[in-house]
Amino acid sequence: MRRHDDESFASERDAAPADDHVTSFVFNAHQSLNLAAQRERLPIRQYRDQILYCLEHYQTLVLVGETGSGKSTQVPQ
Questions:
Q1: CB 51 within 8 A of CB 63
Q2: What is the pLDDT of residues 10-55, one digit of tens each?
């Protein structure tokens, strides 16, 4: 029986990059627009009135949406 911490996994472990610096690319097709115009184009914007209604009338609200839709940046504002 093989154990997961034996030397058979050493090559996978050693092949990983040694530094913790990871770069990522974020594409913003609307970067030429001012910040207010960019906010208007977020997917969450079209639900603004419904979200405000629910916040006013219900004690608890669970909001679900795609990453980058504006849930955590626009709803609190």
A1: yes
A2: 555 556 565 667 766 667 777 788 888 888 888 889 988 999 999 9
Residue type, 68: G
Match 């690319």 to its residue by tokens. 25
For the record, the structure tokens of 1 come out as 């029986």
Secondary structure of the chain as H, E, C letters: CCCCCCHHHHHHHHHCCCCCCCCCCCCCCCCCCCHHHHHHCCHHHHHHHHHHHHHHHCCCCCCCCCCCCCHHHHCCC
| Token pair listed for 28 | 């913003």
